[in-house]
Amino acid sequence: MPRRPDVQRSIPTLRKALAQFRRRGETIALVPTMGALHDGHLALVRLAQKRARRVVVSIFVNPAQFAPIEDFSKYPRTFAQDMAALTAEGVDLVWAPTEKAMYPEGFATRIAPAGPANAGLEDRFRPHFFGGVATVVAKLFLQVAPDVTIFGQKDYQQLKVVTQMVRDLDMPLKVVGAPTIREKDGLAMSSRNAYLSAENRRIAPLLHRVMKDCAGKIKSGEPIARVMTNGSAAITNAGFGLDYFEARNADTLAPVTSVKDGPLRLLVAAKIGQTRLIDNIAV
Question: What's the whole-model pTM score?
Fold first, then answer.
């Protein structure tokens, strides 16, 4: 029977537990999550196990990345199920701090990321978001001091923001981006998928189909602007409220006009019913 992961909820006990790994010279990988784990998260755990001797999964629903119009209280919290899944995967330690442990009274320091955080994608619709992400992730890195951390490519702009922060602040760890895990029909796995009605769940995979079609046309030499305009129309005609559908440089997230502008990434955010979905693919 698999051993249940050690669960720590305060910084002193976390550091005591981690010290045991370090005394044995064991490498540590961190998988940051907000819980409500699905197979996409577990794929990150499996990649972490290939990269380090010990795996730490953090579970913390971060209030700093929710805007006033977003319902922090309604974010799914499934700690018992999450622990069962992490036990089955053989995770070593779960860092599940209380909000008071993460943001004690008087907390007043926040990170204000720029660069890929100001690309005009997610930041255009959630201007608070990447400051909250960068702050909590920096704290997690300082608390756990991992050798490597794993982030999913589904949240591609977030991956770029974290990578830039680690590079700019000389943090001694490696950021690894893990491929997006998809359902059989192509829908990117996400905790938000649980909010989809049956009809909207049927429609949702169209986002991936449109992206694949557009990527193929761009590769074959069709003009990017025309391809993206037609792709946007296909998404809206299917019933989505489109926030953005963009072709960007995969490294910098800068806008592109041709395939000569560097490696390309297509990124989309759209709402179907009450559920906002994001996705991306390489060209």
Answer: 0.94
